[in-house]
Amino acid sequence: MTAAFYALAGVALVVLGLYGLSVQAHLLRKLLAVNILGSGVFLVLVSLGGQPGAAPDPVPHAMVITGIVVAVSATALGLVLMLKVAAASGRPTLDDAPKEDRCPKE
Amino acid sequence: MNLLQTGFDGLLALGLIWLAWRALACPDLFRGIVLFIAFGLLMALAWVRLEAPDVALAEAAIGAGLTGALLLAALARLNRTAAAQTLPREAWRSGPALLLVLAGAGLGLAVLSLIPEPAGLQAQVAAELGRSGVSNPVTAVLLNFRGYDTLLELLVLLLALLAAWSLDADPPRREAPAGAVLDMLLRLLLPVLVLAAAYLLWAGAHAPGGAFQAGAVLGAAGVLALLAGWRLQPHLTGTPLRLAVTIGPGGFLLVAWAFAAGRPAAAGISAGTRRRSDPADRDPGHPVHRRHPGSAVPGLAARRR
Amino acid sequence: MTGPDYLSALLLLAGALFFLAGTLGLLRFPDVYTRLHALTKADNVGLGLIVLGLALQSGSWLVAGKLVLIWLLVLLAGASVAHLIARGARQRGIPEWRR
């Protein structure tokens, strides 16, 4: 029962994170979304590894700890990149299809 | 009692989802980050409920603490550099939302159908635990059974650090001094934090804890010192610092190289003597591959030739 | 349940009550200074009561000592952080709430 709750919560977090990642324009918000997405994946991974009554499976636990550390290094790198983008363009966003008013012509 | 626990689990799961939603949707970024930190702390509680205390420690220290500090520091610098303007509020997009809800429903069904799956690798880990030298199975997996993954993660950290250093060339601006109280707190707290890190590392052999959590505590100590305005002496920031950050990965690579050089046939480091017809290259389940994941690299070199 | 159990349950409940009051203050008080007042006072006492209750349950001096150590650390950090937040608010010129 516990596992089912948290596995479903993990799925909901994945959905929320994907929505935030695709819809939000601010890069910092996108990084938040990636982190939430990752937490959802970790939650699914661990809650599926546990058996009610039995000792929990340590392998998913170890993988999730590794994943948390990789996530924080990736977040740090993403934040540095975001600061560079903001310093260069004046906006903390990525505009792949710049409109006329946003991109002054040379 | 069971009803109480089920209710708690349900509340915690709903709280996680609500916090994640608010962190992504609330218009104020600062508030969003604070909500994300609260989300990390609730995640730590969820790990405890899932009987994963090691993950709970890592989540509280890294997921909530370090990530939160990084996000807040980045936001402060963002506001200072250029983009203080607030973005227009994101419109609700029903197309992607509908698609994602459908995908989420499918995922949920798939996950629910997986739940009565038999136990994973728990029995194998328990059988080999005696040979690992520690009694905490998570530490055994991290540092013994999957030692290559875990130790090569040092390279991931080093790469992230190098990329940050290369991009972030301009020196940080001088901030206002943090004040005597933070300074004093730090003088009291830094030795305690170092001691706590050592304790976590030592306890990881037989109880929840371990290298990652200890490292996170040390990292938190470093973040606190930076917040208080402490900086490394200039004569330490050049070559000594660079040497210090390469000691870990370098040591691992050295040991791996020495180990492989001692057993050239098995590890396949002397790739020049091997041909593509080597059975180990074709069969991924070949014992050579299973025992020495590093041999994949010479395999690549051979294929290029 | 024996005598110590009742005592520890009482302490835990009292601690939870302090946390509830502190949270209520955090949510309902009008400005940053009064919120800090609610938070630090209530949470320090609340945590102290919970630590005492748990120490009674632990049954070992070692664990009880570690719990008390955690409480002392939180006291130190909480007081310092409350000071830092209030100082930051002052430096930014956030006015005090007046009726």
TrEMBL record, chain A:
<keyword id="KW-0472">Membrane</keyword>
<feature type="transmembrane region" description="Helical">
    <location>
        <begin position="62"/>
        <end position="83"/>
    </location>
</feature>
<feature type="transmembrane region" description="Helical">
    <location>
        <begin position="6"/>
        <end position="24"/>
    </location>
</feature>
<protein>
    <submittedName>
        <fullName>Na+/H+ antiporter subunit C</fullName>
    </submittedName>
</protein>
<dbReference type="GO" id="GO:0005886">
    <property type="term" value="C:plasma membrane"/>
</dbReference>
<keyword id="KW-1133">Transmembrane helix</keyword>
<keyword id="KW-1003">Cell membrane</keyword>
<feature type="transmembrane region" description="Helical">
    <location>
        <begin position="31"/>
        <end position="50"/>
    </location>
</feature>
<dbReference type="Pfam" id="PF00420">
    <property type="entry name" value="Oxidored_q2"/>
</dbReference>
<dbReference type="InterPro" id="IPR050601">
    <property type="entry name" value="CPA3_antiporter_subunitC"/>
</dbReference>
<comment type="similarity">
    <text>Belongs to the CPA3 antiporters (TC 2.A.63) subunit C family.</text>
</comment>
<keyword id="KW-0812">Transmembrane</keyword>
<dbReference type="InterPro" id="IPR039428">
    <property type="entry name" value="NUOK/Mnh_C1-like"/>
</dbReference>
TrEMBL record, chain C:
<dbReference type="GO" id="GO:0015385">
    <property type="term" value="F:sodium:proton antiporter activity"/>
</dbReference>
<keyword id="KW-0472">Membrane</keyword>
<keyword id="KW-1133">Transmembrane helix</keyword>
<protein>
    <submittedName>
        <fullName>Monovalent cation/H(+) antiporter subunit G</fullName>
    </submittedName>
</protein>
<feature type="transmembrane region" description="Helical">
    <location>
        <begin position="70"/>
        <end position="89"/>
    </location>
</feature>
<keyword id="KW-0812">Transmembrane</keyword>
<dbReference type="InterPro" id="IPR005133">
    <property type="entry name" value="PhaG_MnhG_YufB"/>
</dbReference>
<dbReference type="Pfam" id="PF03334">
    <property type="entry name" value="PhaG_MnhG_YufB"/>
</dbReference>
<feature type="transmembrane region" description="Helical">
    <location>
        <begin position="6"/>
        <end position="27"/>
    </location>
</feature>
